[in-house]
Amino acid sequence: MTATPIVLLHAFPLDHRMWDDVARDLARTRDVLAPDLPVASGEPLPEPSLDVAADRVADAIRAAGGGPAVVAGLSMGGYVALALLERHPELVAGLALVDTKVVADTADAAANRRRVADEVEAAGSVDPVRGMVDVLLGETTRSARPEVVERVGAWIGEQDPARVAWAQRAMSVRPDRTDALRAFDGPVTVVVGDEDTVTGTDAADHMVATAAHALLVVVPRVGHLSAVEDPAVVRSAVAELAQRVDAARG
Fold this sequence. Notes:
By secondary structure, the chain is α/β, with parallel strands linked by helices. 50% of the residues lie in helices and 12% in strands. The protein has a six-stranded parallel sheet, with helices on both faces.
């Protein structure tokens, strides 16, 4: 049996490059797919829905060989991974939920997303979300690793404002996917940075308690972008999950 492929789904407001350090080693032993969400750069944006993004990921998995795959998603990527699990369960052999959550936004959080989307569109730039670098990265990274702060800030600055607004609107209407996670019988790894103030350890604990076969990996001294701040630990967690999937598939 060939090694199970891995799909890596990125966070907001970033693109597939946030997975580069993780994907580099994983790709030595198995196929790795890291698409831009919801569609490749330059393609027309669909309606703002993470379900649509998940369907596009499903198309990419089938085009690349049909799956099933180990699907790892960080933050918004985790929301898309859960939508994929709900809509295309046959394509998900294992699930890595990284600095994300399974529940829907509160009414206030959803309203704030829509407000930011409006501001980005009105400005015609990503200026309203540039400050997110200070929220996404942990305190240790911000104080001791200026090169990571600069790298993430540059990625944010290079995003298409229309895609940023799309993502905010799509995330604001996503449903609770707890039932989909509870019904999944495959292996799950939940990863969270211990300095993550966006989703945090409470959300991680909830997902571990919900999933039937879940392991928890807490990454020390990193924030919400654990795959960027400590790619070695996240890479090991995803690789271990893929090995569990391979063993289960025989």
